[in-house]
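Prompt: May I have another protein with tokenized structure?
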Amino acid sequence: MRVFAIHDDEIDKNNPIGMLLYYERSNHFIIELCECLDEWNAPLLFASFVKKGIFTIPHQYAKLWVEERVIPSGRQNIGMILKNAKLTKYDECKLLWLSRGKSSQDSCYLKDVKEEEIPGWLVARQADNIYESFPYMDGRIICLLKNDTSMEVDLTKCIDDVPKLYSVIKNERLMSGLTVDSGGYGITFNGNIFVEKRILVENGVVLPIYAKVFDSFAKHCVINTTEACDILECTRQNLGYFVKQELLHPIKTDWKENVFLKGEVTSST
């Protein structure tokens, strides 16, 4: 992850008005704005968010802000521009940094920031980001947050904000493809249906169980084929026979190895 401080000297000459986070693997940008902004001095693209009290800008909108500040890939002389910049391919983040994020649209510019220099207000805001999520039942999912909170979310309640969820809820394959998005700022289905954290939190119900309990469960209660064979003192062939006879019930079968609940294996001996 790369971190940039967003400055605007017309608003504050000493402190950034926000932070731009770039996640290399997913090529996603996230913008976190300071709560000192209002709809009148926030970057124009985000004024409507700030007016609603939303200061975390999702990646699809943060990308629009970035695109205002970089040379488009379709520009006629892009090859020469990349060569002069000593780039072998089009790289949005590197081009953004070369221009320091300046644009004719406003007076914002960027400064590079090390991860350990991230301001406290941003660290605090990220405390309830999502670190894991999985489908539960009937269009419901479980979200585990970095602040050790676990939450159940009925996705049908999120459809007004994300209409595409209607087709996801009715499709088991899409539901099983749920992944946590860059930085834990939301979840995605099929790589193109994004639900931001704010929507999940607004519609979620906090569960009376710490998120770390799920970590402990996975660590102590989930075992692979090799571990199951060691417990039962049997061969993989014998273990396969137990599964076929439904004496054991793997909880995941589409890996190279089956995965079992340890309690079921030990209780069968």
User: Anything to note?
Assistant: The mean pLDDT is 92. Residues 211-221 form the longest helix (11 residues). The radius of gyration is 24 Å.
